[in-house]
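Much of our argument rests on the idea that a fold can be written as discrete symbols. Part of our work consisted of pairing the sequence of a single chain with a tokenised description of its backbone. No coordinates are needed to read the tokens, only the vocabulary itself. The record that follows shows the chain in one-letter code together with its fold in token form.
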Amino acid sequence: MLIVANVAMTSLAQIVLKAGMSAPEVTRALAGGLRLPTMVTVFLHPWVIIGLALYGGAAVVWLLVLSRVDVSLAYPFVGLGFVVTMVLAWALLGESVSPARIGGTLLIAAGVVLLARS
């Protein structure tokens, strides 16, 4: 369950960070270059803060996973994040998902299943 929680948190973090970095005020700030005011705008945007907090929480969960499971077994499950992130990006952000992306992502998922059964 901890591995699944980690995958969910990191995938959700990606979506929230994308929403923050796509916000009009952030894109306007980034158009001006990477200056200190730009970085302040980016790092103080609520979605960016939430996304980074999700990553921090996921790191804590991952430490718990590593304390209980062999890393050679646990780490391949991180690949499930590709599937979860792709689905969330399609469902929540309206991103297009091509057959090639779906096929590649399913190949990754199949590899995770094979590793989990070993």
Remarks:
- The chain has one domain: 2-116.
